[in-house]
Every structure is written in C-alpha cells, then in structure tokens.
Amino acid sequence: MGPRTIRVGVLGCAEIARRRMLPAFAACPDTEVVAVASRDTARAAEFAAPYGARPVRGYAGLLAEDSVDAVYVPLPLSMHAEWTEAALRSGKHVLAEKPLTTDPVRSAQLYALAQGAGLALMENVMFVHHARHAEVARLVAEGAVGELRSFQAVFCVPRRAAEDIRYRPELDGGALWDTGVYPLRAALRFLGPGLEVVGASLTKGPGFAVDTAGAVLLCSPAGVSAQLAFGLDHAYGNAYELRGSQGRITLDMAFTPPAAGAPAALLHGPSGAREVPLPQEDQAVATVSAFAAAVRAGHAPFEESLGQAQLLDAVRRHAAHG
What we know:
GO molecular function, one term: oxidoreductase activity
Organism: Streptomyces microflavus DSM 40593
Structural class: alpha/beta
Protein name: Oxidoreductase-like protein
Family: Belongs to the Gfo/Idh/MocA family.
Keywords: Oxidoreductase
Mean pLDDT: 97
Strand order of the largest sheet: 8-9-10-7-11-12-13-14
C-alpha cells in the first residue's frame, strides 16, 4: 500500500472505541475512520458522526465495502475469532482488541492466515507501544538495578455495573482475559520467552459467574521470578517493579498512563531513591501509528502476542488443574 491515508472501519460500538480508539485514529495522520458498523444503525450513526464517517448496519456489510482498508475489532472476546477471520478473508488488515482469542491454536491460525495473505493482524495491547517501557528496559539492561532477580506487577480495577460484559461467561468475560493480560504481557516483555507457570489461582467473587481475581507465579529460564496479581473487584492497582541484586525500579500507572503527566519511574539504589523522567505520549495514538506502519508493511510482528496467548492458556489450565 502506498502513502494514501489508511481507511479504517470499526466493527461495533464498544466504550473503548468511543473513548480511546476513535480519537486515536483521528489523531494519527496515517489513518482516518470512514465507517462504523453496528446491529443498531442509530448507534453506529452516533459513533460515526464526530468523524464524518458512514454508519453501516451489520458487520458483514462493512467488510464488503471496498472503501475500507483495515478494520478495528472492539467486539466482546467471544466474537473476536469469527470477525477477525471474516475481516482477513475480506482482504482487510485487522487491529483486534486484546486478547485476540482464548485459544492459542486459534490465534496461531489467524496469524498464519494474515501472514499468508500479506495482511497485518495486530492485537491491541496498547502499553507495549509506549516509549516509557523501552526506557525502563534500557535502565535494567545497563545495570541500574544490578542483576535482575524478580518482577512484580499488578493490574486491578474496581467493580463495574452488574451487567458489564466482563462479568458474562458467554462473552468470555473474566479477570484473566481482561486485566490479567497486562501483567502477563509485561512479564514477557521484560523477562523474555520461555516463562514457566509455577503457580496460578483464579477465583470467583460471591455472586459472579466468571473469575474476578487472579494470581500467578512464573519463572524464567534464567531463574528470574515473576509475581503477578489482577482482578475486577478490587481497589485500583496499576504498577510494576523490577528488583535486582543492587536496586529496584518501580513504575506507577504502568499500563494506562495519561498522555501527559504520567509519573516518573522511581529508582531505588544503594545511595537512596531518585526519580527517573520517562517519555510522555498518548499510547493509543502510538498504537495506531504502529498499526499503520504494519499495514503499510503488510505484516505485523506477532511472536510476543502468540507467546502471550500460550501463557494465558497455561495459566488457565494450571489454575483449573494444578
């Protein structure tokens, strides 16, 4: 594809589309939103109007449009595989909400389909595109904390309304798929592939039909441990820490930093603690820019996302069977 603006269609009217991703597509000079599809035409029109986009009734109708180059899929998790495959078979590049599917074999099939068709398929894990994490990784690689010994991360959010899709098992709701992705992906990002699930627990709060809390213990091939916690019925938590032989780095607002005013990292060493300024940017726009680059290349790197899918599955199976 040449330098022409990438024309994006949106499948569904999820809150994350309205609040974060539609503004990000509009802010990125490489993309424009041209169509929004919904089973409810009035709702599609409401979402499309601020961007001068066309409302489309039904997801299949949008995929049939030649004026759409790529689609964003913010549908419930249970619908990701079906509509991601349909979009790829329609010749569209795809940015799908995380996680791509609940099955690593199915995810691998979709990545293979995209690769064979010369299409970009990218999972929307936004924090990995924020430059602050690359800066933290650089500090660790340069020995700021000595030899790395452990990683800890938490992503927990307060209870939402009872009808929220995150609490509906038929839509593949649950803490593992919603908030657990973040600390698990961060562990992969900092500790690398080959992580072993040493222990895992998924629990359902009273009255819930899905897991609302989880804890995971991992170990890397180099012997570095990772202790992760996540949940959907908790006081808010959003941070990680890398601890080494000579110090530690902590980062608050790790996974959902504001576009401006995100906190600095705190580096604790033998001589005390100091703040380390980190880059400031809108990670949603950074993600859209990365997707646009992948569309132009006709391929999106997927190895880490596939590793994430395998790790999520290992956690689920370990929690269920030990």
